[in-house]
Task: inverse folding
């Protein structure tokens, strides 16, 4: 991964409370996993930044190295990698994701 891509990813992750690297956009997800991730965040009324990895091959490959996670989507909360759609679903079902995101709402209020 180039230093430029590394710097761009670092900036995106650090400058947004919640960021989802996904295929497509929240209004038009391009895969079922990205669609599920968006649905979870929307159901939790979470404001988030999205990055369409299909628009930039460097970002698409770079985010996998950045997080050391092989699949997309990828969710970051307050600069920390949370996981992909399966982990998001598990955390959503257990209430852990809502709690994590509520902590973020409290921190930004």
Result:
């Amino acid at each position: 991964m180039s230093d430029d891509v590394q710097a761009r990813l670092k900036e995106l992750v650090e400058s947004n409370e919640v960021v989802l690297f996904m295929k497509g956009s929240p209004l038009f997800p391009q895969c079922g996993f990205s669609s599920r991730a968006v649905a979870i965040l929307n159901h939790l009324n979470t404001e988030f930044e999205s990055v369409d990895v299909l628009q930039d091959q460097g970002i698409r490959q770079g985010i996998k190295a950045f997080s050391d996670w092989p699949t997309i989507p990828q969710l970051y909360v307050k600069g920390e990698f949370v996981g992909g759609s399966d982990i998001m679903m598990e955390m959503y079902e257990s209430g852990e994701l809502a709690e994590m995101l509520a902590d973020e709402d409290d921190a930004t209020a």
User: Anything to note?
Assistant: The mean pLDDT is 92. DSSP finds five helices and six strands in the chain.
